[in-house]
């Protein structure tokens, strides 16, 4: 069931046209706001395998909302992890400086629509991942995303800063 919901959510990812207005957390649009969601098709992660996470922004309002649609990882998406010992760190180094937002980068989300991207985590294949993720030990690793969408005054677009839910993943 969880996999089916995930597939439906990914299929519903919206590729939309340019807009003129963005919203940010704390500045609801009409009767709702943007909702950041982090999900996975699994609750367990085994050493040597790839963990697939999906980060999405849901338009939880009754009106169309325009946002920065560029989802660059690393870049304007920061993936954080809390290790089993309680330490918190960025899961992947090497932040990319984002270019200025243009009209082509803005998307329009209809009510109840999603926009997102997959985050594939395979630390053994990418040296930019944090060392503790390369040497997994049993326990719970809790992930969350911070999404920082740019604003552009010339496009009437305000900056967006969102923090997703925390997603616990168990390493047996």
What does this structure look like?
Helix content is 8%, strand content 35%. Strand 4 and strand 5 (88-90) form a beta hairpin. It starts with a helix and ends with a strand. It is mainly β. Residues 1-32 have low confidence and may be disordered. The radius of gyration is 17 Å and the shape is globular.
Short description:
This protein is 8% helix and 35% strand.
Strand content: 35-45%
The count of helical stretches stands at 2
N→C terminal distance = 23 Å
Strand-pairing-aware structural class = mainly beta
Helix content: under 10%
Low-pLDDT segments, ≥5 res: 1-32
Average pLDDT confidence is: 78
Q: What is the makeup of the main sheet?
A: 5 strands, antiparallel
Give the key terms.
172 residues, mainly beta, three-stranded antiparallel β-sheet, globular, disordered N terminus
Layout of helices and strands, plus pairs?
Elements: H1 2-11, E1 34-40, E2 51-59, E3 65-68, E4 77-82, E5 88-90, E6 106-109, E7 114-121, H2 131-134, E8 139-149, E9 160-163, E10 167-171
Antiparallel strand pairs: 1-2, 2-7, 3-6, 4-5, 4-8, 8-9, 8-10
